[in-house]
What we know:
The complex is a heterodimer. By secondary structure, chain A is of the alpha/beta class. Chain A has two domains: 16-258, Type I PLP-dependent aspartate aminotransferase-like (Major domain) (Aspartate Aminotransferase, domain 2, 3-Layer(aba) Sandwich); 261-385, Alpha-Beta Complex (Aspartate Aminotransferase, domain 1), CATH 3.90.1150.10. Helix content of chain A is 42%, strand content 13%. Chain A contains 14 helices and twelve strands. Chain A has a seven-stranded mixed beta sheet with strand order 2-8-7-6-5-3-4, with helices on both faces. In chain A, strand 3 (94-98), helix 4 and strand 4 (118-122) form a beta-alpha-beta unit. Chain A is globular and about 65 Å long. The two termini of chain A are 38 Å apart. In chain A, 51% of the residues are buried. By secondary structure, chain B is an alpha+beta fold. Chain B has one domain: Sufe protein. Chain: A (Alpha-Beta Complex). A three-stranded antiparallel beta sheet of chain B has the order 1-2-3. In chain B, a hairpin with a 6-residue loop joins strand 1 (29-34) and strand 2 (41-51). The interface between A and B is medium-sized, with 28 and 29 residues.
Amino acid sequence: MPKIYLDYAAATPIDPKVLKTMMPYLKKEFGNASSIHAFGQRALSAIEDARNIVANFLRCQPEEVYFTGSATEADNLAIQGIVKAAKSRIAKPHIITSAIEHHAVLEPCQYLKKQGCEVTVLPVSKDGLVSLADLKKAVQENTVLVSVIYANNEIGAIQPLAEIGKFLKQSKTKIYFHTDAVQAVNYLDCNVDSLGVDLLTISAHKIYGPKGVGALYVRKGTAIEPMVYGGGHERGLRPGTENVAGIVGLGAAIKEVASPKNKIHNIRIRQLRDKLIKKIPKIISDIAINGSLEKRLPNNINFTFPGAEGEALLVALDQKGFAVSTGSACSSHSLEASHVLTALGLPEETAHSSLRITLGKYTNEKEIDIFVLALAKVVERLREISGYKTKTNGK
Amino acid sequence: MANNPYYSKEILEHFMHPKNLGAIKNADGIGDTQNMRCGDIMKVYITVEDKKGKTIIKDAKFETFGCGHAVAISDMICELIKGKTFEQALRVGFEDIKKAIGPVPPVKIHCATLAQAGVRAAIEDYQKKQK
Lengths: 395, 131
């Protein structure tokens, strides 16, 4: 049985080079980065090297990079931290976000709403894009934060961050601009000045680094409060003994992303993804693609296969050795259809029939070829099980 | 087959190789049900016969749009109601399904509820046609 992994948006394997860079910090270099002795200082210097790499990649100052335990934590720190600081000057802070955010952004916003904040959730077009016009209409006097995902995790839709950033800069009152760039880092320019963002979230395990480490860029001078207290780590914004090996891994992963070789990987990934876009509609009837084809991450594609339920697709493919993901619902956690797909205007039944395929730098053409054939068989079988064929044959 | 604790071996077997799949052309009763929340749709087809003066379910088949559990449980309930009177078939519940197919994760219990509703609808359809 093949073992073909096409779920790179969920997690990526650790790049051997990244692992090699991390290993000393899991073994003999175990020092606490806060210790004054040589063990501690070597750990500290490794962290600062990683910080420099990240800062160089984001085109910011090293002291504007704060390491966290995950991207979810970084998103929460950005959103809750900005609102917490704003509450000292504004009684009822207003947050603007979008309908296709990751739960790591949507849920803290919902939480803050319960705590008395105002929250506006921007709609998206059927292509999955936020419009600047909608954002302009949403801005109020008490708006303190806009958080819009850089590239969506389910449909890969790339949002017009630079446009939004430019607009927000003209605002009379300061409106901070945060983006979750987790899915974008490997593929898109993350220069914080050209994007016009004040806060930006990244994650290591989406870019061939380890799990359990993320980072938040915070522009100098941003009014932000910590979520946890206890020690001066990360300049007091994110206390807690640093995950040295993880941070070193994040730095090493960013170094690989920034290397010229990655550009070549990304071109190849796009070509393979485009092959899926070309081949799948040819051998599977009656399908749709969700999200914009132009403003889209090169490694992402999201199909709807009416008559074939998403989780059933995933499980049947898993039985044949393929790992993909569903934007759909009947997952272990929730029965509801994907909030991203329904935000595009997809009816629930259609949203329940969707599959996300995400490629990575270890994907090869042979894998794509056998995947397409297996997918066609599985869709046909599930349509037989759901009686879908009889409907179309009856026309 | 890959080992997946979320999907037991039995569930996977009935999902990948259902025995009672498909429509029955001249079905005596057809039940059409949907779970509005998760979007699953199930269609149950039954044929009946008289045995010793009682009406029993002779054959049962299904078509299901749903996850692996929904398909597997649809298959199993068809198996369980064959040869049963309506009264007996309507009593087939989650415990019977679980006994036959093994453990079902809590989040998937609604799949059994859907299957039971499908059987009920098929029987009611038959009974309506008799009047």
